[in-house]
Amino acid sequence: MVHEACESIAIAADAPSIMSIIADFPAYPQWAGYIKQADVLRTGPTGRAERVHFVLDAGVMRDDYVLEYDWGGNDWVHWALVEGRALKYQDGVYRLQEQGDGITLVTYELSIELVIPMLGLFKRKAEKVIMDTALKGLKRRAEGAAPAADPRGPIS
């Protein structure tokens, strides 16, 4: 049975900055909690990933899966499961809405179904932990990320 969840968080950063963090899949292990590896398998004409392989280790839930992405500029990104071992179905979206004063509301919608049946209570708890970890990690990354160093070195 497919279960759907939705959660939002306000982030003190503009939508393009947040979307660039979301689109930087190789950096996910640094901020996305249970994601241990993320490899871009194919990019699209805009240079953003279209297909990404993930390794997830959330303790009781481990998986190795591939998602396909569709990008709506800096407004939204949608993904769907292509293949997985523990996941039978996954469909998700991040929606970004600038609120003014440098604040962006990020909404995370997720629908999943596992191959192995799980009691609804445990499934909802796992989804909440995954969503909370992702949103809070994204917020920390966007609000606390130091600017990239100038490749030319310090300017004197």
Task: Give the arrangement of secondary structure elements.
Layout: E1 3-11, H1 15-23, H2 28-31, E2 35-43, E3 49-58, E4 61-72, E5 76-83, E6 87-100, E7 103-114, H3 120-144
Antiparallel strand pairs: 1-7, 2-3, 3-4, 4-5, 5-6, 6-7
Helix pairs in contact: 1-3
| CATH level-3 fold name | Alpha-D-Glucose-1,6-Bisphosphate, Chain A, domain 4
Cα(first) to Cα(last) distance is 61 Å
- List the uncertain runs: 146-156
Q: What count of helical segments does DSSP give? A: 3
Q: What's the number of domains?
A: 1
Strand content: over 45%
Query: What's the architecture in CATH terms?
Result: 2-Layer Sandwich
Radius of gyration from CA coordinates: 16 Å
Number of strands: 7
Helix content: 10-25%
- Topology pattern, helix = H, strand = E: EHHEEEEEEH
Q: By CATH's scheme, which homologous superfamily applies?
A: START domain
CATH class annotation: Alpha Beta
Shape: globular
User: Which structural class best describes the helix and strand composition?
Assistant: alpha+beta
Main pleated sheet: 7 strands, antiparallel
Major sheet: order of its strands? 1-7-6-5-4-3-2
* Mean pLDDT level: 84
Care to describe what's here?
The longest helix has 25 residues, at 120-144. Helices cover 24% and strands 47% of the residues. The protein has helices spanning 15-23, 28-31, 120-144, and strands at residues 3-11, 35-43, 49-58, 61-72, 76-83, 87-100, 103-114. The chain has one domain (3-144): Alpha-D-Glucose-1,6-Bisphosphate, Chain A, domain 4 (2-Layer Sandwich), CATH 3.30.530.20. Strands 1-7-6-5-4-3-2 form a seven-stranded antiparallel sheet. The model is unreliable at 146-156 (pLDDT under 50). It is globular. The N and C termini lie far apart (61 Å). The protein contains three helices and seven strands; from the N terminus they run βααββββββα. Strand 6 and strand 7 (103-114) form a beta hairpin. With 156 residues, it is α+β, with helices and mostly antiparallel strands. Helix 1 (15-23) crosses helix 3.
